[in-house]
Structures
1.
Amino acid sequence: MTELPDPETSSRRSFLTRSASLAALGGLTASTVERSVAAEPASGVIDAHAHLNHRSRDSWEADDRALIDAADRLGIDRLCCSILTPKRPSTADGFRECNRWMLDAMKRFPGRVLGYCYVNPGCGAEAVDEVRRCVGDLGFIGVKLYNEYFCTDPIVFPVIEAAIEFGVPILQHAGHAHHPLPGQPRISDGGRIAELAARYPEAKLICAHICGGGDWEWTIKALRHSPSVFLDTSGSVPDDAVIEMAVRVIGADRLLFACDSSMTTSVGRMRGADLSTEDRAKIMGANMAKILAGKKR
């Protein structure tokens, strides 16, 4: 089982780091700090989509540490992370290696880093076995799928069914562009995720990075009739009013705060959004905490 942080310690750390971070920015009033702290959910702030580094990168250890330090400065209590292979499609040996490193990171940063199990569904039984090993035996909190296949390809279904069995979320890489993406011929979009949700309404599907590029308005509308699909708020695109539209169309109960390594933009997007205190708390951590609590075993 994943070790969770003590709520009192977590809250105190968040208060201190958030206040220090805001003070360092300068020009912010005391009321700004009070409003930000008041919005923090009891669960703490959870980044639902983060990544640690593949160890073929010379600076992987320092870069992992830098991510945690940035989370400290921004008042993020927990990060839901995966490690991907640099070249895809991944082999079974490739994703198993990534998941071993992910488990090591969960031990190096206990209670801060929660692990998604990354697999390539094209590896068939080896992918399903890896989900069972990581989620069932090692305390991983969900499954990460990238772009090896469309999420609606039948070869993906056994992985979805394994995640359903454990009651854990599937974070699906996604985007909707109006031009070809030669490097990602099988990228899924909100429409395909909605189609998958209709086939498996019991699955906890997360459509990744609404601000990661592409047509975010199209994506939000594509998901409006799929109540079991969540949408993560991450990405480097600084467009205005994305969060407000998402709340209006699909509701705050289905939005998950996330950064996907674009930390300042993603945190700024949430701080600038015009939201009620209740909706902000849901998005910043309460919704993801509820998903994590739904793990069956």
2.
Amino acid sequence: MTGPGRVLVANRGEIAVRIIRACHAAGVEAVAVYSDADKNSRWVQLAEHAVHIGASPASKSYLDVDALLEAASSTHADAVHPGYGFLSENSRFARAVQDAGLVLIGPPASAIELMGDKATARATAQAAGVPVVPGSAPVTDLAAAQAAADELGYPVLVKAAAGGGGRGIRPVSSAAELADVLPAAQAEARSAFGDGTSYLERALPRPRHIEVQLLADDHGNVVHLFERDCSVQRRRQKLLEEAPAPGLHEETRQRIGEAAVRLARHVGYRNAGTVEFLVDEDQCFYFMEMNTRIQVEHPVSEAISGVDLVAEQLRIAAGKPISFTQDELVRTGAAIELRINAEDPDNGFAPSPGEVTAFDLPGGPGVRVDTGLARGDRISPFYDSMIAKLICWGADRDQAYSRAEQALREFRIEGVANTIPLHSRLVGNDKLRSGPVHTTWLEEQLE
């Protein structure tokens, strides 16, 4: 089967650059899109074609389905890669792409629908024999929520059924607190996701966040590319990811990978995706959610597996089989990724938009930097604050961390506050260097 000849990249920033590079390496042309704020951006310069799709707010550009489809039509693109964020997990967009006669480089709309609703996804995981955290059905009012919480036992988490990326989650420790939190959580869910449906889960004490990278094709092949540990978080937003997960028993590692593959087969998944789990202190694991897209942190899986995940996405979208089997996949060394954001850690992580007046990137063996910026570019207040991702690989975990320490010393950003000083403290932290931490560890360190 002939693959796409021209791919519209329906995204911006570092992931747009990442996808354009993969397209070019595969002999495929790329079409960039840009808003008013991004007209001079790096990805616009790298692509063969570029289309202006609207004003700076994402709702008027990167979330405008009609503008994106018109851009694909006017440039004769035959496929669309949504990247992550924006419309990447929107089943209506996936269907619109397919209805327009284009190939979506991602999962089928049916899989996005099935795994996009978190309450439905829990039931689907159970049906596939994957353990889930004890939880409730969707709750519509306070009485139903209190009854569910009494049965589960406090503390519980109020979660948005349509949520994702750590948003729409609120911890509750008592019935009185639930009465305050539930209406606010439902309002936040309606505002963020257009759906106020919520459900409850039992809150696990100090869990780890472990996720499994998957690939699936049209030929019945489903493979996992080992796991990532994403437990270093602030307010459920990941700051540092690594692979493989430190301190995970080999038996747990094998079982969690098999569970992720089993779930992907159960839902008829295709292309790249990630299954996220919580792992407790006894190394019992529980399904949390599935992200039906390429993830921000995918480079650490690439680093330890030697697989170009975006290149595999292009192969799968072309109807070709995955280029390797599970048995052929070898895990080598260790890798960490640090998200360098334009935020001020010493000022409550306040966003720091503005011009990047100096931008000197680190280098050396095992060091990779993914970014959509160059010196003189501006961090826009309209989008997320990511400046770059620093990925460091080593023959073992200690070497990966040591290389990260050196890379951070070389990494120079001026003009905007950023998280390099925080990351420098993190990679030198004895507790983090010595083994696994839980999902609230960083917040405890920051207090």
3.
Amino acid sequence: MTPQPSTTAKRRLTGGIGLHWLGLVPFMLFCMLFLIFPVLYLINGAFQTPDGRYSLETILSLRDPQFLTSYWLSLRLSFVSAAMGAIFGLLLCCALLLGGLPGWVRRAFMTFSGVASNFAGVPLAFAFIATLGRLGLVTLLLRDLFGINIYAAGFSLFSFWGLALTYLYFQLPLMLLMITPSIEGLRSEWREAAESLGASGREYWQRVALPILMPSVMGCFLLLFANAFGTLATTYALTSSNFPVVPIVLFQQIRGNVLYNPNLGYAIALGMIVIMAFSNTLYFILRRRAERWQK
């Protein structure tokens, strides 16, 4: 019987690299072509002027009040939509997993969340216009059946809170999908130990469950924040260019006919990358803290 070559011998035959590493090649190529190289190209362009000179002039132009206002508007909109998505998504997840609801209800919500978390852009904008626009179905039902005119009361789908409500459509199901493993990771032994020491249900949540869940909740909040910060298609479809969040201002600089200045667009995008990198770094730190309770 011919002896089979050992794993070490196989690695020697392949130059010390296991064949299983070949499976990573398509992913690495994709990251290089569509993430690493574009970011490097963008950074290079952000430090150039339109005539090709290397200078800090383009980066320093972000201090213009127009761009500072756009960043502040995007930060507020992302924070509000992420906070609403995190709070309502957490409450919904607790109701589904800990509220004693039938299993089919949970499965239905999970299936719907998988679809809704990816439903954005023009279709989502049209759905909200048909529902909560000035002549939307819900708007007319509230006005004709209950005498409530939400637009006369100050609400507008094309305002800050209208956009935050629209973002909530994909933020809430995304939060449900992300926080579910953490809720399921709460061990029954922890609750039994707390109850054996005389803790009430409120004290268990206040002193045991919420402190354990908090890193996961904050990590999910940061992901929702990053998700909202980069949203362009939904905002543009709803408000055209009348709501100057950062992605729309960037789009105007890259593709606009009047405000065309690609280098300034690269500088704006670089600012977005810095905010995204800060948010994702905090997320990884919080995720490592949350994983301590899963070991």
